[in-house]
Structures are given as structure tokens and as C-alpha cells.
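[Discussion] Sanity-checking designs against the backbone

I'm trying to build intuition for which residues belong where. Below is a C-alpha cell string of 121 positions. I'd appreciate it if someone posts a full sequence so I can compare it with mine line by line.
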């Protein structure tokens, strides 16, 4: 059974930094063949894609409002992903979800339960 577990959320003042981690387990396919993504869901809003890192090339992509502030990484040996968030803004508040979707095999799409990030003074 595949599990994704996020950690690292909390309360931070505007301008601060947080590092979110996503630990994975139980993947039958190679971790390297999964696209790792981080989504954010603010209160009363739809879940939105924040950042992604794509397979072997580790190509990254970001939502416009986090470019230059957030960095997504993956550790193949530990089968984890991380989202380093800097220069946090109040609008970054929300529950952050880790997602792993296989790059070629349909149906291999897994989610964590989320970690709450609150940015407030």
C-alpha cells in the first residue's frame, strides 16, 4: 500500500521560511518514474498545483506566484520530496498536499493527507 506522509507545516510570520517534506513508502514502481508534485488548498478555494518535479531529468515547474520563492526537490535514495518555501506571504496559507503520479502507468496516482501552513503576523 502506497503512503505519502507530509510534515513540516506550521505557523510562520510573513517573510519567513518553512521546509515541507513528503515521505513515501510502498511504491511498487521505481520512485524515479513518479512525478512528484505539491498542491496547496487555501480555505474556501480549490486545490492548486504549486510545484512539480519530473522524473529522471528532475525538471521543475512552479506556479507563477511562487517562482523564485519555492524550490521543489526529490531524494531518490530516501524516496522523499521536499518543498523549500521562502519569503512566505499571507496568501501562501493553506493545506499543502504531496502527490505522486506515475509518468506512464495510469492509475498510479497517490496523495498524502496534507500539512497545514499558516502565514500570519
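Best answer:
Here's mine. Compare freely.
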Amino acid at each position: 500500500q502506497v503512503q505519502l506522509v507530509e510534515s513540516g507545516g506550521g505557523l510562520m510570520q510573513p517573510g519567513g521560511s518553512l521546509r515541507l517534506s513528503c515521505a513515501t513508502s510502498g511504491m511498487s514502481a521505481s520512485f524515479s518514474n513518479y512525478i512528484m508534485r505539491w498542491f496547496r488548498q487555501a480555505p474556501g478555494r480549490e486545490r492548486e498545483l504549486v510545484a512539480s518535479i519530473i522524473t529522471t531529468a528532475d525538471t521543475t515547474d512552479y506556479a507563477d506566484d511562487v517562482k523564485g520563492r519555492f524550490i521543489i526537490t526529490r531524494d531518490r535514495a530516501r524516496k522523499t520530496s521536499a518543498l523549500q518555501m521562502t519569503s512566505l506571504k499571507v496568501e501562501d496559507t493553506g493545506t499543502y498536499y504531496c502527490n505522486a503520479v506515475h509518468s506512464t502507468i495510469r492509475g498510479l496516482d497517490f496523495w498524502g493527507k496534507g500539512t497545514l501552513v499558516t502565514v500570519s503576523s
